[in-house]
Every structure is written in structure tokens, then in C-alpha cells.
Amino acid sequence: MKINAFGIAKDITGASQIEFPMEETFVKVKDLKSLLYQKYPDLINLPSLAISVNLFYASEETIVNKHDEVALIPPVSGG
Predict the structure, then answer these.
(1) Do 31 and 38 contact (CB within 8 A), yes or no?
(2) The pLDDT value given to residue 78
(3) Which Pfam families match (predicted)?
(4) Distance CA 40, CA 27 (A)
(5) How far is Cα 67 from Cα 48, in angstroms, rounded to an integer?
(6) Which of 45, 68, 74, 77 has a CB 3.0–4.6 Å from the CB of 7, allowing a cystine?
(7) Is 1 helix (H, G, I), strand (E, B) or coil?
């Protein structure tokens, strides 16, 4: 699975797009986050981390297919 990373998530993962192996065809977002936290423990320190699936914000229960477009969206600030 290819995962796009933005902002500080990109800095933590070391790339704007990471290849993330998936053993199962479908997983829930909460399970994907757990796997990401294991591989990139500094992600846990973010005050929030949104996941988008196919260009829509996903809930923890959203099912992710290994062919979906997934992105890590860290907290943003602005004015």
C-alpha cells in the first residue's frame, strides 16, 4: 500500500510517499494507525493524525483496501 504523508508526518516517515506492506486485503483505519505507530513511533506524539481514504477523511472504523489512496494528515495551523 502506498501512503502519502504531509507536513510533520512526512518528516517523521522520511518521505512524502511510503510503501507500507499489508498482509491482509482489508483493514480498518484504527488497525492501520496501530501498525504505523509501531513502525514510526514519533507519530504517536502528534496531537492528532487524520487519515484520508480516497480523498475523504476516514473514521477509525473505515475499511481500507490495499489499492485505496491513503494519506496521513497531521494537525495544521494557520490564520
Answers:
(1) no
(2) 62
(3) ThiS
(4) 18
(5) 25
(6) 74
(7) coil
